[in-house]
Amino acid sequence: MRTRAIAVLLVMIAALAFTPSFEAMPAGIGSAGDGGCSCHGGANTDTTLIVTGLPESFNASETYAFTLTVVNDDLPRSEPDAGRYGGYRILVTEGVVNAVPESAGQVMDAGLTHTAEANTVRTWDFEWTAPGDDEATAEFTIYGNAVSGGDGPGGDEWNVVNLLVPGLNAGAMAPSAPPLIILMTALLLAVGLIVLGTMWVFYRRSPETFTMGAFWAYLKPWLTTTDHKEVGIMYFLYGFLFFLVGGLLALIFRIQLSVPENDFLTYDQYNSFFTLHGTTMIFLAAMPMIAGFMNYVLPLQIGAKDLAFPRINALGLWMLVFSTPLIYTGIWTGEGADITWVMYPPYSSLNEFGEYGNNPGTTAFIAGMVMLGASSTLSGVNFITTVFTMRAPGVTWWRIPLFSWSVFVSVFMLFVSLPAFIVGVAFLLFDHTIGTTFYTFGGDPILFQHLFWF
Questions:
Q1: Pair 72, 143 in one domain
Q2: CATH code of 407's domain
Q3: How is 86-100 classified by DSSP, letter by letter?
Q4: Pair 308, 385: CB distance under 8 Å
């Protein structure tokens, strides 16, 4: 027992020796305050920070005087009152900030903070020396704490203000938001619109008996159907969904181009979003919507009950659906494909020598394209077989409607050309995954263009 008591006592002494005291905070705060004065709780709107004197734009290397005032008239004073009133921490990305007088501030962990002398007031004066580059933009992050006067952190209330001061020749700053958040919001909105539209159609059939369980029972057969009309409708809805997504991708990189020197997108993000826009509009929007019309109309016009291979028809739809995560997967990891929708080597086929052309997002993108090609091939076989073998009696070749003729001819041409396309993209995938050299290091990059445009 005595040994255990001595060990506990030693641990307590060590903890007291190495635990920082709250008395250190009146003398300033370092990087622990970069996310706010969390020892006093979260930011409090009762505390207002007033910054006056900073310019709307700065001249290079010029010095500007400004004042920070912390206002909180409702904060009660502690008992006993140690005479402490306020503190601050200022972080700036460009230029140098100094306290006036110098004894009212000190640099701690790359930020300016108060001293014990400056802890007795709530108004401080500063001088900011602007950077020598007037094309830069200075970002100020200013934390201010209204202190109740006691020794501990209890009762204090703080807040933060962020300010941007551009140089006279700084580029225009467009309103910005993380591009991925915009993309995810659009995806959710597009899916939500389709789900709500489907729910509204079901609700109008019987408003009195509508329940979510009944709605799922209505939706489940659609997800497992092989009927050509229902598959055609789902093709069209899928294409419409990604028509919205592709339009948003176009909007995102046009925001980047809207003003000079815009930093809404990085170079890599711009290339990735441009690649996904082209791929989405062609392979995930236009082709599925066309396939939807084909599925719905062709059997009706030639008098067929369904397509020749209903399950293969549904398989083609779901292969299209499951190729989408592969195409978009790199966006979530920051390694989206940036090889454009035509995927031209040698950049797209770089192995370990490629910084971006060989990232995991690009490899997944190419795998998704192979799956898209397989989906289109299955659909082509289905339509051709249907036209040849399932026309109703009396529907001769000369009596087939013009739309069905156009479907038959276009699908036949697609079926003839797709194998070359799939082989070309598969070779590209092999260059990425198993180290072949079809298009690089002795291979021929022009070969891919011949196969792609065959």
A1: yes
A2: 1.20.210.10
A3: EEEEEEESSSEEEEE
A4: yes
Q: Which residues form the domain of 61?
A: 22-166
Of the CA atoms within 13 Å of residue 77, those in its CB half-sphere come to: 8
Alpha helices in 303-359 (DSSP H): 310-333
The Cα–Cα gap between 423 and 58 comes to: 59
pTM as predicted? 0.60
Query: Does 315 reside within a domain?
Result: yes
- The torsion angles phi and psi of 154, rounded to 5 degrees, stand at -65, 140
How many domains would you assign to the chain?
2
Q: How many CB atoms lie within 10 A of CB 303?
A: 12
- Whether residue 12 lies inside any domain: the answer is no
User: Does the residue 3 lie in any domain?
Assistant: no
* Structural contact between residues 289 and 228, judged by C-beta atoms closer than 8 angstroms: no
Domain boundary, last residue among 119, 136, 166: 166
**CA atoms of 413 and 419, how far apart (whole Å):** 11
Q: Are 144 and 229 found together in one domain? A: no
Q: Which residue has the tokens 């001061």?
A: 165
Residue 324 counted as domain residue = yes
- For residue 91, which phi and psi values (nearest 5 degrees)? -120, 135
Q: Are residues 158 and 208 in the same domain?
A: no
Q: Are residues 159 and 187 in the same domain?
A: no
pLDDT in tens, the chain (454 residues): 556 555 545 544 444 343 333 333 677 787 776 665 655 556 788 899 999 999 988 998 999 999 999 998 888 887 777 788 888 999 999 999 999 999 999 998 888 998 988 888 999 999 999 998 888 889 999 999 888 876 665 678 888 898 989 888 876 554 455 676 777 777 788 788 888 888 888 888 888 888 888 888 888 888 899 999 999 999 998 999 899 889 888 988 888 888 887 877 878 788 888 899 999 999 999 999 999 999 999 999 999 999 999 999 999 999 999 999 899 888 776 677 888 888 888 778 765 544 455 678 888 999 999 999 999 999 989 999 999 999 999 999 999 999 999 999 999 998 888 888 899 999 999 888 888 888 877 788 888 888 888 7
